[in-house]
Sequence to fold (409 residues):
Amino acid sequence: MAINTLFSLVGWAYLPDLITRHLLTFLHSQPMLIPNPPQPRTPTYVQHYRFTFAFVVLAYLGYNLVQGARGVEANFYELLGVERAVDESGLRLAFRAFAKRYHPDKVGANGEQAFMFARDAFEALKDPVVRFAYDRFGPDVLHWSRLSTPREYLHHGLLRSVGYHIVTLITLFVLSSIGRPSPVAFWRYLLFVGFLSMEVAVLLAPTPSSFDTSMWASSPDTSTALLNSLFPRRVAYQHVLFLHQLFLFLSMAISRVAPTLFLPPPPPPDKVSTLSQIANREATILLQTELHSIQPSLEHKRLQPITEVDEAVMEGLAQEMENMIIETNVRKDTGPLRTAWEAAIQNANHVNLNQNHPTLAPNQPLHSLEIPQLLRTPGGTLPSPRPSPPPYPRSGSSYTRARSVSLGY
Fold:
C-alpha cells in the first residue's frame, strides 16, 4: 500500500506535465482538429495548455480511483460468499461449504492458508460484538484484546483513526506554509473537513449486520447510502479506505488543476516599475542615438536599432572612455599627480594666452582675467581640452554628436 502511494505521488509530480506537452504537440500537429495551431507562449497556446493539463489530471485521477477501488482486499463476507446481513446459521452453512471445497485434506498444503483465513472469518462473524467492530475497523479488531462491548470497540477504533487525520492535517499545514501563499489552501482544508465528516458518518451509520442500532443513527446518511450503492458488497472499513484514497487524489488534483485552470488576474502595474520601464526606454533611445552618431545607418533615414558595432568604433569608444576615466580620477586626486596636472595646464594656458594678451605677467594667475576674455581665442571660438574625433559622415541627416567641454581648471 505504501509503495503504491509513493508511486502515485511521483506520478502526480511528473506525469501530468509530461503527458500534457506530448498530447498538446500531437493535437497541434493535426490540421483536422486545430487548423491554425498557436505559437508557444502566446495567450491562445497558454489557454490550450491549461485545458489539456486539466483533462490529463482529471483522467489520471479517474484512473487512480478505479485502480484504488479494484485494489481493495476482499472482506470476510466476500470470502465466504454470503451477504452482509447473513445470520449465524447462514454463516455456518457457508463455512461448511467452503471447508468441503478448500479443506487441506482435499487441496493439500496450498489451501491450508486460505482455510485458516476462512476459519478466522467465520469465528469473527459469528460473534455479534466482534462482527460489529470488524464491519467498521477491519481485520485488525481480531488482535484487540480486553474489549467486550461495542462502545469499547468503537472508542478504541476511533482513537486509532485519529493518528491518520493528525498526520494528514500536519501535511496540509506544511504544504500551505512552503513557498508563496496558495489560493487552494483553503479548499484543501475544507475538503479535509468534509471527508472527515463523511468518515465519521460511515463509522456511526448502522450496518445490515448490526444487532443493536439504538445508539446509532436510525438510517444511513446520503454519503453512506451512495457508497453502499456503488459498492454493495463492501462494509464500512472498506468505504473508509476508499474515502482516504479519494481525499488524497482530490487534494492533488485541486493543488495541480486549480492554479493552472483558474489563473488569478494580473496585478495592476506598479508606479515604480512603470517609471523604471520608461527610464529604461529613454536610456535605450539615448544609447541608440549615440551609437548612430558614431556609426550611422546608411540604409535608412530613420534611426534603426544598432545590434552590431564595428570593431574600430568599439576600440575608439574604449579609448575615449579610458581617457575620460583617467581625467576624472586625476581631477579627484589631491596628491602630487593633481598638482603636476594643474601646473601643466597652467603652463599650456600661459603659452596660448601670451600671444593674445601681452599684458599677462608670467606668474599672473589665470583667474585674474575675466572668463570671456580667458576663454575666447582670436577666432572667437571656445577651445576644447582634448579634440573630439570627427563624426562619421551620414548622408541625408544633419545630426551631429554633442560632446561636453571640460574647462580644465
In short: Residues 212-218, 369-385, 391-409 have pLDDT under 50 and may be disordered.
